[in-house]
């Protein structure tokens, strides 16, 4: 089941996908990892796993449209059945999201629809939330607004910092992202008219 993973940073979610596929828990083939940042540590993780890597520096493009078109072309050469955004810190154009509609997932560190955008952990603490978490969702043109597939939550404890909360949320990410990808690869997830459907039949 060919997939392409897009990253901008550490790539711990990418690592979770690599590990689970090596362990035979996840039947995917990561054809390529693409980063918009040359320094992203996730590129090292990909190389260590013998995965093709590409760096596409958004600063080399004069518009979002041109960058997304080039990105789309690179992804399309691999003919993936799923595009996985794993810490890819770019706002995507409508054309790009339409092209991969129903076959592109993102993971966002909040219990959507709460806390779209950045600094989610600090904002949740500042608002005295009792809990926080992470969401896997299909990507739609509007940022962090696509249909949610799976969420996991954790308590915000007394004295919690953005760092301690981020660490707890990350460990949840590494469970629910591979699981969502597994469901998609098993054809148990579908997307229709902006909604996510889960097929629970055995
Ligand atoms: C994660 O917190 C994810 O929810 C967000 O970006 C971060 C990526 O972390 N979209 P990593 O690069 O996978 O370690």
List the helices and strands and how they pair.
Blueprint lengths: L1 E6 L4 H11 L6 E7 L5 H8 L3 E4 L8 H14 L4 E4 L8 H6 L4 E5 L11 H7 L4 E8 L9 E8 L6 H24 L3 E4 L2 E4 L4
Parallel strand pairs: 1-2, 1-4, 2-3, 4-5
Antiparallel strand pairs: 5-6, 6-7, 8-9
Helix pairs in contact: 1-6
The chain binds 5-O-phosphono-beta-D-ribofuranosylamine (GRF).
The site of 5-O-phosphono-beta-D-ribofuranosylamine has 14 residues, from helix 1 and strand 5.
Question: How many beta strands in the DSSP annotation?
Answer: 9
Q: Domains counted in the coordinates: how many?
A: 1
Distance N to C terminus: 20 Å
The portion of residues assigned to helices is 25-40%
User: Roughly what fraction of the amino acids lie in strands?
Assistant: 15-25%
Question: What ligand molecules are bound, each kind once?
Answer: 5-O-phosphono-beta-D-ribofuranosylamine
Q: What is the string of SSEs from the N terminus onward?
A: EHEHEHEHEHEEHEE
Unreliable spans: none
In CATH, the homologous superfamily goes by the name Formyl transferase, N-terminal domain
Q: Give the mean pLDDT.
A: 97
Shape: globular
**Largest sheet strand order:** 3-2-1-4-5-6-7
Enumerate how many helices there are, as a single number. Answer: 6
Class of secondary structure makeup: alpha/beta
Q: Note the main sheet.
A: 7 strands, mixed
CATH class label:
Alpha Beta
Radius of gyration: 16 Å
